[in-house]
Amino acid sequence: MIIKANVKEALKSLITAKQRTILALIGIVIGIGSVIGMVSIGTIVQNEALKQFRDMGIDIVSITKDYERQGSDEGFNIDHIYGLPGYSSLIKKVAPYIVSSTQYSYMGQDLYIELMGVDESFFDLNKLYIREGRLLSDLDRNRFFCVIGAEAASILRKAGIKDILGRQFLFGERIYTVVGILKSLPEGGGMRPSGINRGAITHITTAMRAFTTNDITTFMARVDTQDSKAAKAVIENYFSKKAGGLRVRVRTAEELIAQMQKQMQLFTLLLGAIGSIALIVGGIGVMNVMLISVTERRKEIGIRRALGAQRTDIEAQFIIESVTLCFVGGIIGIILGIIISYVFSHFSKWDFLISQSAIILGFCVATAVGVFFGYYPARSASRLDPAAALRE
Amino acid sequence: MLHLIDIRKSYQVGPTAVDVLKGISLTVEKGELLSIIGPSGSGKSTLMNILGLLEQPSAGTYSVEETRITYDDDRTLSSLRNKMIGFVFQQYNLLPRLTAVDNVGLPLIYRGISEKEISERSMEYIKKVEMQERFHHKPTELSGGQQQRIAIARALVGNPSLILADEPTGALDTHTGQEIMNLFRRLNEEEGITIVVITHDPKIAAQCRRKVELRDGIITG
Ligand SMILES: Nc1ncnc2c1ncn2[C@@H]1O[C@H](COP(=O)(O)OP(=O)(O)O)[C@@H](O)[C@H]1O
Ligand SMILES: [Mg+2]
To answer: Which domains does chain B show, CATH number per domain?
Structure first.
């Protein structure tokens, strides 16, 4: 009863919307919003990392030629790549690929469908599955067959092309026959080459003959899960010996996740800093609002004391009022934080999710700020001399 | 019921101490209707604040129902004010944002009584002061006499044995003031509530069974 009455009182003073109340609340909203955004993004990244594990496994690495550290701009020698599993038992499987720079155009209209060249193990390492038709295999060597991604298929359909399977398309100067359509892939696989969804794939041997630039700059490998560091060393060693001091960069799933977390850390650090400053500013604003409220209601405090309110009752009344104010700011802040994390995950192409614990945390922080900054005004209210307050 | 022995009160104003009460000894018996009369500034309100446990005397002893008040525990003092004493003020002192029912119910919210029971009891006491037409009115929507009736209902709702009224008719016209005095006399006669009325109006004081005169901080008659 007494709590309900106090909450009502606080909401009334908020609705009367004195400017200082609004200003104090802006601080709380930004503060709580940042905290919620921070925690939500943390959860989203965690989820993304887990997805990475589930989706591709942590035993996949991607190897790129380190152009920065050597002059030559030639790609990998494909035979060197295929020699790698024989060199060390830590390397189970390799999958080189090339991306062409030409794009498919149809009736004068650029459709932006990229063509890649891959081998059979590429489908396995990247967990690519067929939806219609068939996958490519190493039997498709040097043949002008291709499979296309799910999104590419729907782009073609939108452009008015029906019966995609078996149809022939001109990429660059060659005609390819579509033998299959891939299942749709989740966005942002991390390790997986981007653009498979909206691209077309032919066999790597075909690609090396047909593409104008046929440098292999990257390949993927499945390594012994137990020891990805050792596998990394083996790969670096191999290329340095075999290809005359060639330097490579090996990216493991662990590194990828670490990199994601670093990206998150930077952002959460920023949000954390903004959040704590805003919370302090907002909290001081709330304290100011409460101090003014106490001064304006000295008479009321005197009356309540005369009617039997204990010091602790008065203290509770003003703390509840301050917490209510912060709660209102907190609710708006939670909505703001969810929007922040949505925008962040949207641009990072990560799955958006609402973190329940973040919302609970938001309410806890709001309560804590309300109690902390409401304590001093509430205490001074409870210490008022009732006789003096009544004389006014 | 109330027993004051040589009560003194002085206030420190800057470097000088102002003696407001200069040795008051007074006994108020159960069931009395007592008036304390004196000119403005004679210390009446200060005396009422001491009687009502809102202020601690600088010296002297004050006992309520044979128990000496020690002023060291806010809980005890608050609880006595809440359960034993009802205050009525010259300026009514209703909370402007609350309706009549909510104002009357205020003393009860500090007792942990259910909301339903509080509003039932508040309405009962509003009926007792004949204000049942005005349950949901705010103080500003009521006349002075009506506000004072609501304030009396608030003083009575906790079923106190003592009512302390500081110039309860001071802001009212003669006719309305008389109605309020009639209400006090009825409460005193019919329910045996001890009532102390502070006033500077001899006509009001004359209606009380006992009259104490205060002048410049001492009792003169
Ligand atoms: N807190 C205080 N500090 C200083 N002087 C006070 C204080 N309270 C009351 N007084 C003084 O005490 C005197 C008596 O006041 P009061 O008890 O209100 O008289 P009355 O109610 O008879 O008019 C007045 O002169 C007043 O100025
Ligand atoms: Mg007075």
So the answer is: 32-49+81-219 (3.40.50.300)
